[in-house]
Amino acid sequence: MSLPHLATLGAIFLATVLVPKFLRWRSRMAKLNAIPTVGNSGIFSSYTSARKFQNHALEIIQEGYEKYPGRAFKVPLPDGWHVLVSGKDMIDDIKKANDSDLSFQEAITETLQTDYTMGLAARIDPYQVDVVRTPLTRNLAAKFDDLRDEIQAAFGDEISAKESEWIKVPMLFTVMKIVSRTSNRYFVGLPLCRDSDYVRLNIEFTIDAFKGATVLRHYPGFLKPLVRHFLTNVPACVARATKHLEPVIRERLRKEEEYGTTDWPDKPNDLISWLLDEANTTERRKNIVFEIVSRILLINMAAIHTTSITFTNTLYQLAANPDIAQPLREEVQACVNEQGWTKAAMGQMRKLDSFMKETQRIIGVGGLASSRMVMKDFTFSNGIEVPAGTILSSASYSLHHDGVSGLLGLPIYDLNILTSIPPQNVYEKPEDLDPFRFSNMRTKEGEGFKHQMVAQDPSYALFGHGGKHMCPGRFFAVNELKALVGHVLLNYDIKFENNGGVPPAHWDGVTVSPNRTASVMFRKRPAKA
How many whole angstroms separate alpha carbon 302 and alpha carbon 185? Predict the structure, then answer.
């Protein structure tokens, strides 16, 4: 081929491929540049701010929240820009947006690399969400005795406290084992929920999936299958889960074939059955063992992670504030005396609900909520435009600590950069633990449901700000938590050694977990005569 022909082909390639890409990139960057930056925004200097974000995420988010109230700002990350919003109007815009504009699923796919950590089918056909939303939630009352039985058994095995002495219990990992057992008593039943390897597997998978996602995000798409296989523990976890679950799944399938129906005699009422019922098409029955196993792992990850964090945070606050225990204990005892250990009794525990919600308001599970991937250029009702391909979130930690007194008392690394613009005045004394903050709100006329932990509340974002993407498993999680905390209140006294306070949480970027090494002292309460 002659040189002129090569030059012509090069010009065509430049005109048809590279120039349009450059113009789209420039248009996108122009829209991003119109959104104010917290930190450096230069091509190279932004990487300095991105590195700083890893250790100072809360301070940086809070700076933007206070400088740009009710607006958007962006922070630099190592692999791009993250746009954060605040204010009721912008949060409502996110809640009301169509998935074709702002996608919750695509944000989760990108953040957690779910195509590789959970399996592609769980994203393309997420029927596990319908299972969580409907049969898993609706069977709470019918299966509550199982939850209660496993809570008693798990505490008996994991916390061998006596009336005569205090024992020290390493909290977070002990809680994870108890929560794994309790959740899986509901999900897969006996004896599997008590199998020590299965319990460890479900705890480890959550950790391995998050670590794997971090690794996967650093590689291009064509390399990710190899990276998943060789550089993450995800395949090993799936193999372990399959070893435990495949015999059960195969036996259920054999029963369906034997009786010629999915509604065969004495069919277990559990997550495996609900998922098989939902997998009711030829397409969904392909590779059925892997599809059920991967979805059980996914549901376990969601259940164990958030519930363990919330339960541990609640126990830390109880241990640091023993005066709170008695009014909570009296409420739990009264509700149980009247209705037994039932879902109905859990619904009557307003003070306990408030205390758990307040505990999570104080610390929560991270700095951000309601993350979405912008699928096409999106304009908020206040005129702010965010370009396609951007991940945006709400600044939930700042919202939960937004009070009438100005700055939040966070260790801002450079106070000179803050402005005097007042916050949005959401909570009175937001840095104080007010255990009955929300139950007191519920005493007002018409407010009985609004301030429950499971309710949609624009000022509270543990389960999302509301809308169709609010966590579908929150009803199961909150009822399980009440049963867990209620059991502790009626059966144990707890405290920190030397009457210490709540140990500092562990922050990693915008994610947080309760202190991983702290122990709590337990002593068995005297049995009632």
Answer: 16
